[in-house]
Amino acid sequence: MTRRTLAVVSAGLSQPSSTRLLADQLAGATRDELVRRGHDAELRTIDLREYAHDVVNNMLTGFPPAALRAAIDTVTGADGIIAVTPIFSASYNGLFKSFFDVLDAGSLVDRPVLIAATGGTARHSLALEHAVRPMFSYLRAVVVPTAVFAAPEDWSDGTADGALRGRIRRAAGELADQVERRPPTSGPTDPFALTTDFLQMLGRGGDTPVS
Ligand SMILES: Cc1cc2nc3c(=O)[nH]c(=O)nc-3n(C[C@H](O)[C@H](O)[C@H](O)COP(=O)(O)O)c2cc1C
Fold this sequence. Notes:
The chain has 211 residues and is an alpha/beta fold. Helix content is 39%, strand content 20%. It is built from seven helices and nine strands, in the order βαβααββαβαββββαα.
């Protein structure tokens, strides 16, 4: 049994949030699918509204405050990502975009991602295809074919109706396929890690003790 981590990113602003509800259902379905295939799956959920001020500070200063750093590490070190945004003005909301803007370039290359959204009208469901999917393609992540959109009529008493449940199950299976196909990640990459031996940088060779 191998341990796989899933980072669940929700950009919902309301409390309670339908975006968070959808994120939780996608996360549960993906975890169940991985467990069914013999893996140990760990969910790490990030509610972006808790990091909204930190994200802006990161954009202004170029550095993430400690709490945001931990959230970024969770996402960049996960074996799979579930990314869910509310639709604002026919696209992802600003918080969702800004969070992914502050990640280091290249940190999501080849990373499996399931994209999903909530909206006030099903007429805007294609925002997933014209906005969210291209953003992750630009980041060179691997976005699973089924993108899950939930409109108000897809819920009854906080439970996904039959059609939405079917889409959640299919997308979860696709994400599990992609996660299973790759070796477990070794955690986030350290942007400050030395790529050259420090003594060699000083011109002393790797074996020479420093006096
Ligand atoms: C500023 C704003 C703009 C919105 N624009 C759209 C839109 O263009 N299309 C749509 O379907 N819903 C739109 N909505 C509705 C939200 O997407 C919907 O209520 C969403 O489910 C809220 O998620 P939450 O409950 O997680 O906060 C908008 C809501 C707000 C506050």
